[in-house]
């Protein structure tokens, strides 16, 4: 066990790292973020920082020599960097787990090899292979880059009749995965924490709705039968255990009309759909990450209240440096605002989120939609 006072290293300095640092500080830990040379909201909260690219050998040596244990706040970190850090200090999650989750080809192969339900897929690396995969998979289908895709980026839905040569022009030079389109009824996700000793802590499923391919709201508890919720919890545990996981992770699912679950993606870190835990659960996902990484007993995942998490994107900002009028939000006594400290807003940039607690999810959702409409100038 790493006790309070330990210096924890975080690879990445975005909003997830910022909220991790806040939780760690509350628990008496110190933090050092390695930013990767990007804008780093976590630097305002961390005790120390290394503001350098992830391929810097000097930054790597400094990071590994100063921290006692390390974790990540996002997965798209060079494999060589992850392995080099892990050779010097304990890194949780492991480079092996992170390497699987950072690449759709490896992720899908992992799911298939472990008998975990996922969409039918083919890996393609040129237009000829894409044409063959389109015949095999059929349409509709979704073509996704194998690496560095998130929030709907690096993907295209194919309806049928497209010219593979033309489609591939947008993907040329990259490996990609063609997946069968899943006619889902809803999208849900489950946060699961593992301590590396066989113990797990699983949160209630969140029901997720998207806007512009980016998470819009998460509704907890998800509006599904309890037996389906339990199926999702168990399947999330199965995924984590197959990864020999330590830390917290999000598992995203498509749910079919009959209740069947298909794993869509795995996020080896805190997840946007877990932000409600900051106000509505006995242990937040960020405190849970600290506990899992440092070898503390995992905390309770008990849901304290129905909740809706509303993502606050840059299109809600009147100008890139001018925030919305938060008066309506603060007037709602059951709502908590979490801003990420980003200097400039952009159309679909995640600037913050709000957690709305209430007597039931329909009440929370109605209030969230009202706030969103006001911020977007639709009310």
TrEMBL record:
GO molecular function list: 5-(carboxyamino)imidazole ribonucleotide synthase activity; ATP binding; metal ion binding; phosphoribosylaminoimidazole carboxylase activity
Can you give the residue ranges of the ATP-grasp domain?
108-294
Which positions in this protein are listed as binding ATP? 104, 144, 149-155, 179-182, 187, 210, 264-265
Keyword list, A-Z: ATP-binding, Ligase, Nucleotide-binding, Purine biosynthesis
The domain of life for this entry's organism is Bacteria
Entry's EC annotation: 6.3.4.18
Concerning InterPro entries, the annotation shows: ATP-grasp, ATP-grasp_carboxylate-amine, ATP_grasp_subdomain_1, PreATP-grasp_dom_sf, PurK, PurK_C, PurT/PurK_preATP-grasp, Rudment_hybrid_motif
Which GO annotations describe the biological process of this protein? 'de novo' IMP biosynthetic process
Catalytic activity, as annotated: 5-amino-1-(5-phospho-beta-D-ribosyl)imidazole + hydrogencarbonate + ATP = 5-carboxyamino-1-(5-phospho-D-ribosyl)imidazole + ADP + phosphate + 2 H(+)
Q: Name one GO cellular component term.
A: cytosol
Q: What pathway is this protein a component of?
A: Purine metabolism; IMP biosynthesis via de novo pathway; 5-amino-1-(5-phospho-D-ribosyl)imidazole-4-carboxylate from 5-amino-1-(5-phospho-D-ribosyl)imidazole (N5-CAIR route): step 1/2
Q: Does the keyword Cytoplasm apply?
A: no
Subunit structure of this chain's protein: Homodimer.
PANTHER family cross-referenced by the UniProt entry: PHOSPHORIBOSYLAMINOIMIDAZOLE CARBOXYLASE, PURINE BIOSYNTHESIS PROTEIN 6/7, PUR6/7
Q: Which family does it belong to?
A: Belongs to the PurK/PurT family.
Q: Which NCBIfam families match?
A: PRK06019.1-1, PRK06019.1-2, PRK06019.1-3, PRK06019.1-5, purK
Role of this protein: Catalyzes the ATP-dependent conversion of 5-aminoimidazole ribonucleotide (AIR) and HCO(3)(-) to N5-carboxyaminoimidazole ribonucleotide (N5-CAIR).
Q: What is the official name of this protein in its record?
A: N5-carboxyaminoimidazole ribonucleotide synthase
